Predict the structure of Peptidase C48, SUMO/Sentrin/Ubl1.
Amino acid sequence: MVSAYLQVLEREHFFLTTLSDGESIQWSAPTAADLKYIFVLACEDANWYTIVVSCAAKRIVVFDHLARYHFPVLDILTKHLLSLRIEDCTHFWTTPIQNDIEDSSIFVLSFAESMLDRLESSDECLQAGCGMFLDTDPTISPCHYNLYTAQTDFEIEFSPHHLDKCIQAWRGTHASLVSLGAMDILIDNYQKRQTSAINRVLARVSEQLERPCRARLKKDLMLYDNIIGRTVTGTAVSAAQFLDLQTGDFLICSHAEVVQILATRPLRVPIFIPKTLSGYNNDWGVPKESLEDYLELLRTYATLDAHYLDVDDVNCQPLSKRACDVIDDFQKGDKGPINLLNLQGPAKSPPRCILGPRFSILETVYENYQAGKRLQTLHHDLSASSRFNILGSAGSFSLPHIDHHGVITSVFCEKGEKLWILWPNLGVEDVKKWAETDSDPESAPVGIFLEEGDLLLQPAGTIHAPTSVTDCWMTGTMHWDARDLVTSMRLTELELRYRHTTNEDPAKEFRGKIDTIEALWRGKQGPWPWPEEGVEEFSRLLQSIRGLLAKKRRHRK
């Protein structure tokens, strides 16, 4: 019976958490030792919950299956754990995990061993394990009641000073909101990996400078050596700390917390969602595409635009070459660092924390109507670029730039490692100052380290200079925020005045798209959450942008 229960936990991708001397979080799959005491509790809404208790391992995990309603754990404890004689449950805190995909939730608790001195069970608890009743029809739960054995000589005692002992676990598509104490540990461990990655890149750049290389790579390496030499880990904060203090160089949080943060404000601070909080586990057992698979896909294309860094021309633009030759060069590594930034490939959906009309306007607006007529768009280059793949060989890098047209960028690390160097907390005026001086911002850059399964949300206008620590494949999406379009247009105007600020030309579709957006905003049409104010400023910026685009066309002629 124990082995059957363990199979259920493994199938459901549950992991238990352990605090080791209060210094680090250890993750592990449940074992037979964790099943010393088990209770199944039924709630009034006909959901059932299982509590797995292991005194020796200092673990408690509370989770549910097929939940239709989400009760706070405190409510569950006070209503359904009375037989456990909890003396001070008012000091207990945790947050239910919502999941729109599977309509279920998880509650995670962890307490010190001293809090699990005694435990006792009752027939009421055990009888609740017979099954789950949904719409009056009984459904036998995966954890059948025969698996449980009553214990009669134990009792649980809770103590208020263990609030910060609540730590986080996850299952597939779930991520928990964790206590400040747990986040401190998570952030500390992450920043150690940041420091290691920064040092590795610093050593690699120094080594590259000592080797013979061609003019462009030599010139760019000298510039990048100065950047990486100034790069710091920065101040990482949790969602709770950010909402409290409004400070920090970047946030570390879950998708649910991103939704909470963006509900009342635009994205202004980079947000890092690590694999452990992103729900990256392969729930269905479907093999993930490997880097080798993706390279073989690219090999089937006719041509690829590749940035070869080790060349003589210091102003060299991407070279269009036969795809099979580019992939050979990438794999052999004998042609120096290579960046491929405009790739076709698997089209990834936007991160679930920024789904919905507010962040879809860049991709969808051209399909709408203007003044009763369908917009005749000749180019879809801007809409198409809203989903992208980038591939960099180990040692490749980009010099500081901003993404064009004031887009919010999400980047997801499919394979490999990336150090995403950026300058956080700069406003449009700071970006303008950087553009005018053509020198790096005075503030120290921050290196955000991305591994497989990690996600970064980058605010519009963020100056960044990423580098591939290993061969690295990333996918991403670009967005406008319908509630922050003025900022996007201010940044677009700036990049048209200072062409060196971005590594991309203006999109051919851009003019028609923004004209349509202006009409839709004025008419309050469509599903997008138009702001009550700002349309006049938006129109003024569009006039300036149209003039700059016309000037650019005349210059080309």
